[in-house]
Amino acid sequence: MERCCCGLMTPEKQAVPLQSVDVQVDVKDHVATVVSTLLYQNKEEKPIEAVFVFPMPSEAAVCHFSAKVGETLIVAEVKEKKQAREEYDDALSSGQQAFLLEESDQSPDIFSMSVGSLPPGESASIRLEYVTELDVQADEALRFCLPAVLNPRYQPAESTSVNVTSVPSSLVPYDLTFSVRVESPRPVSKVESSCTMDPVEYLNQDQTKASVKLAAGHKFDRDVELLIYYKDSHQPSAVVEAGQASAKPGSLMGDPVLMLSLYPEFPKDIMSSVSSSGEFVFLLDRSGSMDCSMGHGPQSGPRIASARDTLLLLLKSLPMGCYFNIYSFGSIFEQIFKESAEYNQKTMEEALEKVEKMHADLGGTEILAPLKHIYSQGCIPNQPRQLFVFTDGEVGNTKEVINLVKSNSGSHRCFSFGIGDGASSALIKGLAKEGGGHAQFITGNDRMQPKVIQSLRFAMQPAVVDISVTWDLPKGVSASVLSPPLTSIFQGQRSLLYAQLTGQSKERTEGCVTVKYRLAGRPTENKLNFSLKPAEDAGLTVHRLAARSLIRSLEQDQEGARWEKDDAAKKKIIDLSVQSGVSSSFTAFIAVNKTSGDAIQGPLLRRNVPLPMMMACSMPMPQMNYGMQMQSMVCAKKKSKGFSLPKFRSKRSCASRASSGGFASLASSGGPVVTGMLCADNMMDEDFDDTMMVKGGSRLAPQPKALRDPLLELVSLQTASGCWKLEPALATALSKTSQDLENKQPSMAKTEVWATILALVWLHGLKADAKDEWELLVMKAATWLRSQNAAGLTECVEAANALLGCSVQKEALGL
Question: Which of 73, 150, 186, 369 could form a disulfide with 232 if both were Cys (CB 3.0 to 4.6 A apart)?
């Protein structure tokens, strides 16, 4: 009988071999190098195999994996995945210690780490290193995210349900320490986080170097998100990194590599106007998990409520004469209009009425079917299609979804939004990248509205077309672009280009790159001069990011052509991965300690590191006994559907491997039971709704409707044309009486003009901090006012200021 001597325990009373995780992040300008050290210890009486499945940023380039056992350091090599697995199995069978790190076959943002044949009492320190680019946010912050949460992947195809080894986040039996060092040519103004951090410590007088640490007592209930702000806005830049001295000249690692960060500037007259045409299609996730809380505070509402408010703002911000439709999906999908409808007061009111009734009640996260339906609808002439996708979920068919968007990229732009901790970066970023749009993540206590409205502004800008990149280099020097072609450019957003520089020149030490494109029919270009002299002490960060970009591009190009059958393309990816030491979908890191052990008799004991269970769902949940195997949620209606995570491989008979996910590994189960609180996407079907939940055989009363935010209350009263009407609801939204509004109305002013001026003055004077949210609908209101040729606007503005206690100038209203 197997027993545990001591140590941390899982709900199944098995020891947890992972003791601690230490993460150190080194940020240089907009690139981060992340080093994670994981300490394992076997406190049992028999050898074990520890399996740790964890999330990873989808754009990360994993470039180092090593293990230290006692005084022995074993550095892993990158090898073809099948060969690496065989070497791992062979090593364990012969009693040697082995360490395997591999990317999921289904999604590039999940990795599996196997620590094999750890003898009783033995410890192993695992070092994992990756480099990644940091995204630019709407407020110009750079975002770094350490994914601590990996949601279960919903499998739309026939699949076996699974049991999840999980514990509440407060009981995760391993520690996390997290520290960041920031260095930039520009001063660091501040560092913010979704988690509690110690105060920022500046390391030099000009504040270009700083460090910050995660406060003690962090719980594994959210991603660790950092927002880094520099004092100056982002400027175009270029870094040339010298090649590796030991690598073959002419190879990617042997030649210098250039990284260009471009921030295109568009003409101001184009940026100050927005398009009045377009077909805007909104695709909203209504799976059960959308009832989970947006943030971590007691005042944070459910994601579906925030999504409803966001759709209100979006609908009010659309221009008259455009077309729109709203789809929602779960296990099934619904649409408001049979086909996209012209935007006017009638269709807007009909859509808002249906949006108000939307709840997180459609079951799972099956996004492929509604996407196929949307793409089957013919495009409307002279109305460019703009697709907005909102989801908190993760799917098992990520690559298939992204390929569908890519195959339709010529007919639309796709803007994607990942809601809540654990949203798949591979899915969200992949949709936007292949759809020529922009990706946003809404986590912690972020407001969804300003980020979504920023993307709407991008969508309403004219599409940048005919993008080309030309080089002016010294004679004898040539550039080979390693990045995929630029397909989208947005004002204020960074575009990255990697290029391999071949050859040398003694004549010139500078080069120039020019990005040309057409915007609103106007030829435009941006130039950047750069030095060809390699940067000092740059290491190989740029080379690894370039290799990762090229590998991902090759994988994506071959995906639609069934690259698994294209041996030449597969070999090219494997060769590039091995040469650069960067992981790919066809390779894995393998390390074997050849000085260890005797052949093992019988199977190793498998120990899955437990998953921190998300506890943020707002819906009532059954009582649970956390000390036992948790089997509290039965998804009776969805027996053919279930949670699974990308399969890593079928393992040898001594320790069978199943689909794996989160920080846990999942083992196949015969029934539809899902352990832990991970069945939200499946349980919310026809047996449940968002107002009544079954608990102990009785039904809970509906929750009272929360009071709407005053800003959204005012916005809800705006008409499709852009004006407001003088009505009691407007007086209430402005915290006044109808008598107040009528008494202060200038005699020569029309009632709708007066009502609209009141709303605009209130927004500018009392809600200036939310300008990012209301700017587009205010522009529409100003356009409506100008169309009225109304008299007495100055008097209306003065009267509104007096009534509301503001001091807004007429010019500020765009009149």
Answer: 186
